[in-house]
Amino acid sequence: MREIQRKRWGRSADRLEGQCQAPVDRIRIGHGSIGIERLEARFVGEAFSPHRHDTYAIGVTQSGVQTFRYRGARRVCLPGQCHVLHPDEIHDGSAGTVEGFSYWIVYIDPSLIQQALGGKALPFVSDPIVEGRVFRGALPRALWRLEEPIEDVARIEIVTAVADFLNRASTLSAQKRSRSLHLASLMRVHDLIAADPARRLSIAVLEGVSGLDRWTLARQFRAAFGTCPSHFRTMRQLDEARRIIRGGRPLAEAALDAGFADQSHMSRMFKRAYGLTPGKWVAALV
User: Fold this and answer.
1) CA triplet 141, 31, 158: central angle to 5 degrees?
2) How far is the C-alpha of 195 from the C-alpha of 259, rounded, in Å?
3) pTM value > 0.70
4) Are 33 and 155 in contact (CB under 8 A)?
5) d(CA 225, CA 232)
């Protein structure tokens, strides 16, 4: 695990809140696993601008007051409380006091949650603030031991516990939670897009691959993976762009190789997903 201290920019896990515009006291990047990223960070002032990502984000405030706007309301997460953000939901974040705030956070690929629930629709936690007495016994302590690698068995145990926690905390009706999805069909679409995100696929192709009509496909893909097929593709394009940028190639080349129209197009999508531009993301790398 790495610990980074910088006056303005720190590096976080490849995705999301840790890579944000803010003066940063400290970021500790924990060991992750396939579909799991976790970190500990402290922010002062504005932590990150409005953005959305395609993972569940489950964070625990350690000190200070964390505030964020989510689904049209300003929320406050105090020490000992947990916040749960659903995939594809726009949110921002900032410190509620001049002292700043610190928190642990884990990002979970919704496809792991979906698999753990056996093909049911993803749980949605309408109230993003969860009290400590609710989640402490539900989430394994190993989840927050950032210095410990996540082995294969522990990975399954973490995903299962998180899935059960989200399912219990969800306000969906029992009928909707139990609704089965066409998982095999949806996974074919998921894997086809992920294999080559630079390739633009027509809805007719996706219908043919899945065997589902376009309306059922759109509804069930979001229920299974937390976002629509087009945004899922964009996020995989950004994954590819970041990989290329890490390799030292120019932003313009990364944009084209990842399937964006040009660098400007990639920059807009980057800011929309992560709350900062590719150039500032590069500046945060160490």
Assistant:
1) 40
2) 13
3) no
4) yes
5) 9
Q: What is the per-residue burial (b if ≥16 Cβ within 10 Å, else e) of 265-284? A: ebbebbbbbbbbbbebbeeb
Q: Are 239 and 194 in contact (CB under 8 A)?
A: no
In the chain the first and final C-alpha atoms are separated, in Å, by 14
Residues 241 and 233: their CA atoms lie apart, in Å, by 12
Q: Are 42 and 24 spatial neighbours (Cβ–Cβ below 8 Å)? A: yes
Contact 269, 260 (CB under 8 A): yes
Look at the chain and count its residues: 286
Could you tell me if 18 and 4 are in contact, meaning their C-beta atoms sit under 8 angstroms apart?
no
Q: Can you say whether residue 71 is alpha, beta or left, with left for phi > 0 and alpha for psi between -120 and 50 degrees?
A: left
Angle at 15 between CA 14 and CA 20, to 5 degrees: 100
At residue 148, the 3 state secondary structure works out as: coil
Q: Are 244 and 258 in contact (CB under 8 A)?
A: yes
The C-alpha atoms of residue 35 and residue 22 are separated, in whole angstroms, by 26
Torsions phi, psi for 228 (to 5 deg): -85, 160
Q: Do 36 and 155 form a contact (C-beta atoms < 8 A)?
A: yes
Residue 271: both structure tokens together: 């800011």
By the 8 A CB rule, do 197 and 258 touch? yes
pLDDT digits (tens, 9 = 90+) for 49-93: 888 889 999 999 999 999 999 998 999 999 989 999 999 999 988
Angle of helix 183-195 relative to helix 214-225, nearest 10 degrees, comes to 80
The answer to whether 227 touches 87, Cβ cutoff 8 Å, is yes
Q: How far is CA 285 from the centre of its chain?
A: 19
Q: Summarize pLDDT for 217-265 with one digit per residue, the tens.
A: 888 888 888 888 988 999 999 999 999 998 999 999 999 999 999 999 9
